[in-house]
Automatic annotation (TrEMBL):
Superkingdom of this protein's organism: Eukaryota
Pfam family, one: G2F
Domain NIDO: 98-248
Cysteine disulfide links: C627-C644, C710-C727, C752-C769, C799-C809, C803-C820, C846-C863
LDL-receptor class B repeat spans: 970-1012, 1013-1055, 1056-1101
Protein name (record): Nidogen
GO terms under cellular component: basement membrane; plasma membrane
Membrane spanning residue stretches: none
Annotated ranges, domain EGF-like: 528-566, 577-617, 618-658, 700-741, 742-783, 795-834, 836-877, 878-919
Major subcellular location class: secreted
Amino acid sequence: MFNMCYLYRLLFLLIWGTSFVLGIPRDLLYNYGPTEDDKVLKGYSVSSTDVHLEVPIVFYGETYDYIFVNTHGLISFLTDIPGFVNIQFPLDYPVIAPFYANVDIKNTGNVYFRETKNDALLKRATDRIRSAFSSGKFFTATSLFITTWNEVGYYNLGSDKVNTFQVVVASNGTDSYAEFIYPEGGIQWIEGANQESRLPDARAQVGMVAGDGRYYTLRTSGRDQVQHIERSSNIGIRGVWMFHIGQVQANGNVNTPDLIKSDPIESVTCAARGSTTCHSKAQCFDFETGFCCECKSGFFGNGINCLTNDVPLRVSGKLSGRINDEELNDLDVQSYVITSDGRTYTAISRVPDSIGYDMQLLHVIGGVIGWLFSRPVNNAINGYQLTGGVFNHTSTIKFLQTGQTVVIRQYYTGTDVFNQLKMKADVQGSLPSIPLGTKLEISEYEKHYTRTSPGKMFSRMSHFFMLEGVPVQHPYEMEHVVEYVECKNHPLNFTTLHMKITRNLVVYEAHDEIVRYGMTSKMMFPQDRDPCEEGRKTCIRHSSCVVDGDSYKCICHPGYQYILLENSTRGDAACVDVNECASGINNCHSYAECINEEGSYSCRCKPGYNGDGRLCEAEDCNVANNCSPFATCQFDTLTQKYTCVCIPGYYGDGLSCYETDSVTANCNNTDCWCPYDFVLEGLMCLKKKTNDISSEEVNFDESCIYTGICPPHSSCQYNEESGRHECRCDEGYNLQGSTCALQGICSTDDDCTPNSVCVWSIQFNHYQCVCKEGYYVLNDECHLDATEGEEETEPQQECENTCHENAHCAYDTFKKMFKCRCNLGYRGDGIHCEREVTPCNLVNNCKTGEECVYDKVVQGYKCKCKKSHRRMGNRCIPEETCLDDPSMCSPDATCVASSENHFQCKCNEGFVGNGVTCTPMLQERENQFLVTQGMAVLKITVSKEKNESRPIVMKLFQEAVGIDVDCLRGRLYWSDIAGKVIKSSFYNGSDVQIFLDTDLGSLEGLSIDWISRNIYWTDSHRDTIEVANIDHKGRKILISNGLTNPRGIVVHPELGKMFWSDWNRNRPKIESSNLDGTERHIFLESILVGLPNSLAIDWSSNELCWADAGIHAIGCADISTSESRIVVDGIKYPFGLAITPSSYFWTDWETQKIESAQKNSGQRNHAIITLSPAIGKLYGIVAARKECPRLTNNCAYKNGFCGSEHLCLPKGSREHNCVCANFNDEGSGSEFSCNEIV
């Protein structure tokens, strides 16, 4: 140990004092492997079970007692992440990612992990933390969780390059730190080798994601330079990075070291910094003042960012702003670039129809992309070679005939993890109105970009547009300013670039709400002598020469304006500063201060607000303590934030409150009186001059009959002794100063006397001190009961049963025990709670066919169906069924008995539907399936002749997982866990719509009750099972407790049952309940249930079947008896499952194909190959049925007679419940319309 410590210190000194660029040796990683009794992931393993921590880890202020280790370069909390999700950070779950990439360990590599309390390792971690963080001055690690990825390969089966890296989380139970370690030669690849797709694997990402969405990434995360992470550091030791991840500030982020200089190396040579700055496809050149990067032959860019020559590229981003008084919010911008010949095609989607044709005039948005990727001629350079795709571009367009002006600010931030260029744009101003249905014609034109200083280019031009078919020119002027970063060590040797734009295409497609811009452009140096070589000498201060045709113009720099000087006989002029703050031509936020600067301006958020000045958000006052002295910090239940609110008598935003000098007096027939701290003068109340009385105090000496003010928990009462009205505290409250406080109130046990505890009182609805069991009260103190033979016992500290989600555990001071109690507004025994409804004897809310009667069970009045009526949903209707009225059924249906004295309509043989509507059953010679695969939804056709696979919906950054069909309407529904939405379309992929997009987490399973018109889903992020009506979208949470990792779900509409799988590695199971969430129970829990994924019902055998990745099989169980069997075994990694009358079909993560087997023999069919795995993993599969199974239930006819805003939820096969739907936040909904009927 002594030699290792000595070597470590020696290495530290060598690195600190030299420009040595290699990382730390591999043997200086924390010890790992079989010799350390590490647990291991290898081969086909993708993630660990939940690992219980002896010492909890604190992450973004949350404490976690268990953790998951995943092969793809991250450790996670709450759930494992077995698959590589091909998206840019943040992920949906809390994770620590030292190197998140598409790792494949089937051919090479292992992942080792353990929790250790080794003294030497704890000291090593503690010393490093104390030397790097001021917050760690007194920190002592008591546990380390060490995870090592040792020589792991890349997807797919790649083993020629391997990565080794390590993450160490040090914790003491109340705070935690993380250390990322990358040894010398440890990083050899940064992305999987998918070459077949337009969307490659994301480049490796390094950082952390909190459970609430906050995240932190390293500067090189997702960039080409991440492959050199072993050569850089934030503590001065190459390959070592440290972070304070535990007790971070509220709404803050992880902290980096503040006691150690990030990089002690002062040298700016290629040897010292070139490899971590230049792109891997660039060369580094040393100059006298430093180094510069230059892309190698076959690539183009600025050396820091390089792209391959002649390879098409995509650009994507968002556009916001305000045009012609129309707000634009995050419109999608997409562009496809053919770099070989300078062609660009740009589209802006979701454009409001009111300004769609007008926005054809914003072709400069496509023009900037054309400037970036113009085809260079004769060694000229285009915009990407100048900027590397990182720059700001500001355009000002003036329409000379109308006097209208628009300003377009575009911000390009470089390529993302998929090597696609990212941008955002802000547009402000007004455009001439273009007649509806009219296209624009913009002829080819040329313009010059003049480099006015290093990192700044300017262009000015005049042009015109014409309406299609109308030979009238409409002139406009454009000015462009480009700001970027040049390598200052080797200045560029040119002043002007000449750009030619041809083949302009501008069109608005009203049907799709898309504006399209197309063009071809090339860049060259001026062929003739540059006019600015002489003209530059004539330009005045704060101006630059720009080429204007064959001549030149001197143009004031941005932020300056041209004026003629007074009293000048020679016509002298100057470029003077524009005060953007005074003129209003700035984009500072309303809660920011605009600060004018010479030639520019800056924005600074006002005190109490955070942001960059362009966007400012108020800090929560409970943290910032920033309210005005005349305001209070209050919790806003609507925004779920603490905000400052001015006290009565003051006005403002709470951060600043201004005094109101006068208010109207309160008067009755005889007297007038004023609020406290005001004096009456005539009919007005004027503020007193002194402010020495607290705004929260109430003067008990003044008569409340005149002030009209009493503090909370008091009332104004007449006092016979004083002969005046006074504020008196309510029963159970005592006067403390000028407020009324609860008697015996407490917040912790420390507020109570010895031998008593602070508990919630059911009787008094507040916390109070009560004696422990075995003690009694005497003179306000708790004394031990003197009964002999009894030992002192501690009281029960919690409820024995699990309380309902709308209940809490409270102490019953009468029964001296803890029990579950329903929250305010709910009723029940605490184990089951339901919303309280105003009894009908107080509000006459019984409907037709009902009467108000006393119910002895609930000891209250309820509406009850009259005799000769029966309950149907939330209505009481005359006893009449299809047996009495056959017209209730379709002509192609029969009225059949469904239970005693009850009948239902059921479609005849050869017809399908819900009995009310029946259509002929279509006979098909082929099976069609719908499949989710990452960014695509596929339609698969299986026939004897051939199998076909084609995408019907494809969207970038989508991650489609769960899927099911509404066979009644011919629509499919799928979940997008990246966008956190449920989408819908027809079977052919047309008419894509957003079904739900609020309060959704990670939806892994969907199932549709086409009869009741409801869609059910599992949410593994929120750990809930929920339902929504397909027609009116009202929704309800059905189950929210006892779920660990819910995944697959399927419903049986006729039985009124649903089944779901729970991917709990410690206790995997399949559960069941009624479709209203009642009668929940475990359906199957046995050795045949390993890691159950998707579920499906075999309608021909009435069996529930599941795809199991744990036992590598397809299993089925009889729905009535739960008797189970294996129907297909020896499969790889099944996820989705669909069943036809003759075969089982499943998606397989390992083979990356759709597999199938025949029912009667188990013989395997030919696998179906889909799109490239780069599109994403294969998830759900469902048969695209053109007919529905011949089933029915109580909700089929008129929504079960439930209200129009209710969910009709079958409760088994004979009953149903009408549930009040939530249309906004959870818990909202009409109480009145939810009246229960018995």
